[in-house]
Amino acid sequence: NIWTYSFRSVHIWQCSLVWEEEKYEAGIKWKFLEHKGPYFPPEYNPLPENLNFYYNGEKLKLGLRAEEVALYFAQMLDHEYTTREVFRNNFFKDWRKEMTLEERMLITDLEKCDFGEYHNFHKQKVEERKNRTKEEKQVLKEANQKITDEYGFCMLDHHRERIGNFKIEPPGLFRGRGDHPKQGLLKKRIRPEDVIINCSKESHVPEPPAGHQWKEVRHDNTVTWLASWTDNVQGATKYVMLNANSKLKGEKDWEKYEVARQLKSRVDGIRAQYKDDLKSKQMGTRQRAVALYFIDKLALRAGNEKEEGETADTVGCCSLRVEHIMLHDSLDGEKCVVEFDFLGKDCIRYYNKVPVTKRVFKNLKLFMENKQPGDDLFDRLNTGMLNKHLSSLMPGLTAKVFRTYNASITLQQQLKELYDECVGTEKLLSYNRANRAVAILCNHQRAPPKSFEQSMANLQAKIEGRKEQLTLAKAELKKAKKEAKGNSDTKLVVEKKKKAMQRCEEQLLKMEVQATDREENKEIALSTSKLNYLDPRISVAWCKNMEVQLDKIYNKTQRDKFAWAIHMTEKDFEF
DNA sequence: ACGCATACTTAGAATCAAATGA
DNA sequence: TCATTTGATTCTAAGTATGCGT
Description:
Elements lengths: L1 H22 L9 E2 L18 E3 L2 E3 L3 H12 L9 H13 L3 H6 L6 E2 L1 H15 L3 H18 L1 E4 L2 E4 L9 E2 L12 E2 L8 E3 L17 E3 L8 E4 L6 E4 L6 H31 L5 H16 L26 E7 L2 E10 L5 E7 L2 H11 L14 H11 L5 H19 L1 H4 L4 H15 L10 H33 L3 H33 L6 H6 L3 H11 L9 H6 L1 H6 L7
This protein binds a DNA duplex through strand 12, helix 7, helix 10, helix 14 and helix 16.
């Protein structure tokens, strides 16, 4: 039973905060871990014989390996990125590596390749998938459930826990975000021989698939992952880890917010400190102070340095370059304005014009002196130095704690501020508004939904319809009033008409509010902050105080993830 | 101080499933 | 009842942060 389980877990967590040292030695994450190993995607299924690939107009039967990789490309043909030079070149280079000698000799120009039949085959498959009957869907669902039951859970210290990503990533063409230099490269099939298994010595070690061996089996209880492999495109390690609703992840999440709350009580001192540091004789200290000012005020990310040419060109605070900011002594009636324009994580553009203090402004001018646009703004600073400084100010303090702290405190403040105006109107709307303020602060954007304009127009049409209805209702009310003239019989009718009119008015207002909400949300993603930055206890307490059902705010997955907060939070919780 | 490896969180898009309405 | 829309879930890339060897 999930509820007793969760309740018991929270009980354990509450103890663990107090007895942390006693429970495990530092760095030990578990005592027992058992699982079935990751689930591998199905082997490649060759195309039907009658399907052809054409090179330079000539029919050509590709070998299995070349065919498989060609199909990856053919499947993507509807996407814009298959037209990009970098993508095409990378794909072609890697595809040729999979060819036989003869194929490689013959196929030397991607432009001469015709994947049309492969592409159509794929589209047909997608269509078939879409048109599956209820029964077929049911059968597939059950088969999937069986896989999840077998591979999707593990035993960790007497708890059966869900695994977050127990499926090995299938092969395909790498799709980085933005202008990625490696887009189109072949992401190779992962075999058991590539996979490291991590589990208890005394557990039942997972069986590798028939005829295969694991790369390694280790028993490291200082880490939380169950399996890992190296991705051939980036050379990065990928991990199989627990689901967010697990005790291990929940505890970590709780800890994160507790650190952010500690920052709350010390932030005044820390701010005073970095304001003071703006005057330092040391250039490095001044740069650190300005960077911290940005991180605190604008919720910028730390900005680790990245290897050039390996990823898209994105930056965070410490890696800002001169070209990413513009200084305006005065702009739109404000003094000392900094104009930011850069690509951040996932190539999301950060654009903002912010008035800053005179001292910060002067420092920025100084940092930019005698520099080229491509030079680092903070040439005496990196994230390591910044975090080292921060951890000396408060244990556990790093740059990203500021984002968590500022996000959560903003939510709490906004909810308080919006409290008055949301009585009477929609409570949920005010919650969304507060959530949105945070999303804007953290620059969480999304591509507008494909059907946004259409759905907006539909809603607008409905509003118009309701408006007409309202005018009608008003007219009827007036008429009824006229006819009433002290007649107690018709007074009832007047009341009825009045009620109808009011109901109509309410519905109209609700729709208009919904329209505003949706419009304001067009390019803003609320889910990221809700899931990663907002202390769930703020939301749980708000729901209790406002008498709003929690499932109006959090869906099932979110309630699972925040089970710890749901059970421990009282009405009077304050971040 | 650095360069690199490791482990973990955060991120938006793609896909799938449920709800809604013609 | 079917098609469309919306919301939930899955996927995996892209960050942060820290430790280690030189």
